[in-house]
């Protein structure tokens, strides 16, 4: 007997059982280009990293103009809005609220004044000591306009000691515990900053004689820019009329790039650590096939994030790969609630199944992760309803058993299904004939970079920085 599931109470139709993105950042220095328009299209390429708000700030070297709005990039901007954003420098931001609520005031880039110049800052990541910093800044007279840690970060930089902005950033960095990849606009210069652990990605590119920075290299490809290199952990890159200057501290001994950037978050056409993620994810699928073989007739992937791993699983196992789940790509981006009849159809609002691909077959379904388990069961049921004889779930990541404190909206620990159930129990809960996860060893074999330099917090509970609870206690002790 297989489980039957009530339909999850989605606040939006795209609120399915996945980790939610963090934010996307972009910056450009290009005196001969329409920087606002280029930033707009680059943010399109980073839309997967945040869909709650979008914003662009530009500078002509003397003053900063900005436009921010709730919603997708396409909803936040029109020709009239872009026409007000003039200059030769720009930073852009797409946001998912991992810290602070989804309100218009929290939309980035954040603007803040310093004695040197006004700043506009786009931030990807999360500060675990945000409460402590905010209490300290408020005691020093700062008045906050938002509820996000991005403003806390911006004001920490603004109040830091230093005769130059680079000195201010460098002096502020040790005080900001957690993850931060930044694109900073300061009147006539652009800065790219990455925390010393390198938790979130950030890269540098060229657009002819000009320079751009972005969360992912896919954004560079979208506007025709050339990928040059990643910004190193702990590095400050300064861009101006005199070109690029790097203010590095040497590659830190301890790094902690988020594994889920490689597994799920970053686009498959992006390059991280010298490897195209599409190819890396195929290797994850191959390792998954080695570790969790099962007799089957067809391999399918949950679109789109698990498609490369499904291809890899099929290639190693010799079982044919087939597209069977068709994603309804646009219905998921609405705030309109379905009526009860539509709600009862569950995941079919998000996916349709091709019966010809699965009817009478033993199906191996590859997914990238199972968070709460609220979607996997209905997907399994959907495939069975299309005529599948068996459904075997395979996950190309280890079980997620701990929450994230570094910029991913995951879930509380008691909401994580792998923290409450064994792997066989999860399989029974979702109604699969069998289930298998990729091991941590198998994941690192697929990545091919060794175990050092990655954050495994959500998989092992070993975090590279103090957690909210620890820092919160310190903050309260200081009040």
Radius of gyration: 23 Å
Could you estimate the helical fraction of the residues in percent? 25-40%
How far is the N terminus from the C terminus? 56 Å
Count of β-strands? 23
Mean pLDDT: 88
According to CATH, what is the class of the largest domain?
Answer: Alpha Beta
Which residues sit in consecutive blocks of at least 5 with pLDDT less than 50?
1-15, 471-479
Task: Give the strand content.
Answer: 15-25%
Strand order of the largest sheet: 3-2-4-1-10-9-11
CATH homologous superfamily of the largest domain - what is it?
Answer: Aminohydrolase, N-terminal nucleophile (Ntn) domain
- Name of the CATH architecture of the largest domain: 4-Layer Sandwich
Polypeptide structure, described:
The chain contains 18 helices and 23 strands. With 479 residues, it is α+β, with helices and mostly antiparallel strands. The longest helix is centred in the middle third of the chain and has 15 residues, at 277-291. The strands form six sheets. Strands 3-2-4-1-10-9-11 form a seven-stranded antiparallel sheet. A six-stranded antiparallel sheet has the order 5-6-7-8-12-13, covered by helices on one side. A four-stranded parallel sheet has the order 17-20-21-22, with helices on both faces. The chain folds into two domains: 23-254, Aminohydrolase, N-terminal nucleophile (Ntn) domain (Glutamine Phosphoribosylpyrophosphate, subunit 1, domain 1); 277-450, Rossmann fold. Mean pLDDT is 88; it is low at 1-15 and 471-479. α9 (277-291) packs across α10 (307-317).
């Amino acid at each position: 007997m297989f489980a039957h599931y009530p339909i999850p109470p989605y606040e939006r139709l795209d609120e399915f059982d996945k980790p939610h993105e963090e934010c996307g950042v972009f910056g450009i220095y290009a005196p001969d280009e329409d920087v606002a328009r280029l930033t707009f299209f680059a943010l399109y390429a980073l839309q997967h990293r945040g869909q709650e708000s979008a914003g662009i700030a530009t500078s002509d070297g003397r003053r900063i103009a900005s436009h921010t709005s709730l919603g997708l990039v396409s909803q936040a901007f029109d020709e009239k809005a872009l026409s007000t954003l003039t200059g030769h420098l720009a930073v852009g931001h797409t946001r998912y609220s991992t810290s602070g609520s989804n309100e218009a005031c929290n939309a980035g880039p954040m603007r803040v004044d310093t004695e040197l110049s006004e700043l506009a800052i786009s931030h990807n990541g999360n500060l675990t000591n945000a409460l402590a910093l905010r209490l300290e800044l408020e005691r020093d007279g700062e008045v906050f306009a938002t509820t996000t840690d991005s403003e806390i970060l911006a004001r920490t930089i603004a109040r830091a000691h230093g005769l130059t902005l680079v000195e201010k950033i460098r002096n502020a960095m040790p005080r900001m515990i957690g993850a931060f990849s930044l694109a900073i606009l300061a009147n006539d210069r652009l800065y790219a900053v990455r925390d010393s652990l390198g938790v979130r990605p950030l890269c540098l590119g060229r657009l002819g004689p000009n320079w751009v920075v972005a969360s992912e290299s896919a954004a560079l490809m979208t506007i025709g820019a050339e990928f040059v290199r990643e910004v190193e952990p702990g590095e400050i890159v300064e861009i101006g009329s005199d070109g690029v200057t790097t203010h590095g501290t040497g590659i830190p001994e301890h790094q902690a790039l988020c594994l889920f950037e490689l597994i799920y978050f970053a686009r498959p056409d992006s390059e991280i650590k010298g490897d195209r993620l599409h190819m890396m994810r195929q290797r994850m699928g191959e390792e998954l096939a080695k570790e969790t073989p099962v007799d089957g007739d067809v391999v399918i992937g949950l679109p789109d994030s698990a498609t490369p791993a499904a291809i890899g699983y099929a290639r190693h196992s010799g079982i044919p790969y087939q597209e069977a789940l068709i994603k309804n790509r646009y219905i998921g981006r609405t705030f309109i609630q379905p009526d009860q009849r539509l709600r009862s159809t569950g995941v079919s609002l998000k996916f349709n199944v091709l019966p010809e691909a699965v009817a009478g077959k033993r199906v191996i379904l590859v997914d990238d992760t199972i968070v709460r388990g609220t979607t996997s069961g209905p997907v399994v049921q959907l495939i069975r309803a299309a005529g599948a004889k068996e459904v075997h779930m395979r996950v190309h990541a280890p079980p997620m058993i701990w929450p994230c404190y570094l910029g991913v909206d995951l879930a509380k620990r008691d909401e994580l299904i792998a923290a409450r159930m064994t792997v066989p129990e999860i399989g029974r809960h979702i109604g699969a004939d069998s289930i298998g996860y990729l091991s941590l060893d198998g994941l690192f074999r697929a990545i091919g970079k060794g175990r050092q330099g990655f954050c495994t917090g959500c998989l092992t509970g070993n975090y590279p920085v103090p957690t909210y609870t620890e820092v919160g206690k310190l903050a309260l002790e200081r009040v």
